[in-house]
Amino acid sequence: MKKSEWSDEELIQILRQMPKIEDNRHPHDVYQNIPRWKRKSVQWMFPGIAALAALLLFFILVPKFMDGNQQSVDKAAKSESAQSREMAEGNNTIKKEKSQDSTPDSPKMAAVQSNMERTAIYDDEIGNGQVLTFWIPDEQVSFLVPVSNIVAKSQGKTWMDLFTEKASELKEPEWGLTDYYPLNASMNLDQQNNRVLVDVPIGHQYGQGSANELGFMEILKKDVASNSTIKQIKLSTAGNDGIEFGNTGMTSELMVSNDKNRAFFFYYPQGSEKPFIVPFNKPFNDVQSALGAMKGDAPISGLQKSILPSFEIENVGNEGNTLQLSLKSNDQLEDNQQTLLCLEAILLTAKDFGFEKVAVSNSPITQIGPFDLTKEIQVPLAPNKRDF
Amino acid sequence: MDSVFNELYQKYHHDVFQFLFYMVRNREQAEDLVQEVYIRVFKSYDRFEGKSSEKTWLFSIARNVAIDFFRKQKGWKERILEKFDWSDNQVKDDHPIPEEITVQREEVQWVYKCLENCTVDQRAVIILRYIHDLSIAETAQALGWTESKVKTTQHRSLKVLKRQMETLFEKEGKNSEKVRVER
Question: Which tens digits make up the pLDDT trace of A155-196?
């Protein structure tokens, strides 16, 4: 029986009938579950840790910001000090120049002289060593650059042993040349028949493309010619006679001929101020026309003129093994690195024409680098000395 | 085991538990809160002056624990959300009716349901006065009120309960009538 209205008494009766509720857990469990530690400690733990972390972050970040400001201040200070230093230096150089004007034999002049260096190898520096020359393609692979150094002779080692040894130590990319050595071939001396044996492995890359194969043969011939008196190169592939070149066909022998009567030009590899002095392959009839050609660039890109306008040759003559050059009296000729390079190109060209010495007359200066123009100058042994 | 705990447990544990159960209307919560009561009892046992009876002292602690629980439950998240979510302001009954109540007769269930809609103070008075059968004086001690405040609160809570019962009856009655019609 339901009612829609209850009196207070009835309501209280119902409330009194509310069931008794008991905790069903064992008292022991209840006791165990009472935490001995105050809850309060936990309450401050979290904000405490958060505050610590915030402080930590603060100390990490603030110095960064401070640092950033400081750096810009530092930079400003630095640039200022740099400026003042430059100014101070400017004053110094002015002073120096002044002092140099007054004393021509100042240390700076001496320093300039010692800074000028020959690029070829000469008789006076060879000692007990032996000159090795490698012919290396330039960066564009359009001509070959001879690179030489003096290596120590060692007993029982032929020039070929030294050649193959050093081939792996060449720093072609560093010099601005094409990385070509060591060759993918074994080179040996056949002393009985006075010839060089070149053996390439099967699958070698030298037969691919006409430029490739011509370059390879040219390099072999030039390497042998520069380093020995041998006239014959025997070719083989994995021990079998001959090398198959795509265009030339099967080739089993190369004849070495000494190149002669070439003119030498400058080759500046990219980013380099020191040129290689490189022969242009075409021979000239006489030394006069060769020297004349050297006043202009070679008809191949990359080879630049090696005789400066200031180095004006009026007369070319010869007396035995000495090339005689008479200069036009010219005030512009200076004793500097460029003139020295120019003289070396002339010396190398003279050598190619079979001269042993060069005499320069009527020069406004008596000295170019280490060369005394009042005396006859010995032609170099090999061009382009580089360390390897 | 602690002798103090043992004594208190023997004498009052189930009373305190029942009070908390009706206050928070959830057995698990009541179990947790009982532990909290013990913690507070141990912390302040030496300060117990004996002015009131141990029983009313325990009830007063239990009431404070319950009030703190309600406060905590209404945490900062809820407080913020409440500001934005106007639809959520309605009274809701998210606690299922405990098993102990569902086995009772219908009117008892209704009273239990309606208790939810009383304020915490009203509920505390009703539980102490009518379920625990405390006198007005004892209730005043437990709640820390004057006896007259207990009387007025008790009167007001019975009124609220009555009104709630009537609306609930109407709703339930219609439902049962409908059922009857369908038969």
Answer: 888 888 888 888 888 888 888 888 889 888 888 888 888 899
Please give the Cα distance from A74 to A95 (Å, whole number): 31
What is the DSSP pairing of strand A195-200 with strand A276-280?
Answer: unpaired
- Per the domain annotation, does A294 fall within a domain? yes
CA angle B102, B107, B110 (to 5 degrees): 70
CB contact (8 A) between residue B42 and residue A14 = no
Amino acid at A168: S
* Domain around A70: 48-92
Across A107-111, A215-219, A299-303, B89-93, the highest mean pLDDT is recorded for A215-219
Do B148 and B66 share a structural domain? Answer: no
Q: Is the dihedral of CA A262, A268, A270, A274 positive or negative?
A: positive
B116 and B160 in a single domain? The answer is yes
Q: Is B6 on the interface with A (CB under 8 A)?
A: yes
Q: What is the mean pLDDT of residues A290-311?
A: 86
Percent of chain B with pLDDT over 70: 80
**Phi/psi of residue B65, each to 5°?**
-60, -45
How far does the CA of residue A22 sit from the closest CA of chain B (Å)? Answer: 5
**Residue A199 near residue A239 (C-beta atoms within 8 A):** yes
Identify all chain B residues contacting A8, using CB atoms and an 8 Å cutoff: 158, 162
User: CATH number for the domain including B63?
Assistant: 1.10.1740.10
- Prior bond of A63 cis (ω within 30°): no
What's the confidence (pLDDT) of residue A41? 57
B39 vs A: CB within 8 A: yes
Whole-angstrom Cα distance, residue B149 to residue B141? 11
State residue A80's pLDDT score: 54
Do A239 and A308 share a domain, yes or no?
no
Among chain A residues, the shortest Cα distance to B161 is held by A11
Please state the ipTM of this predicted complex. 0.80
Identify whether A5 is part of a domain: no
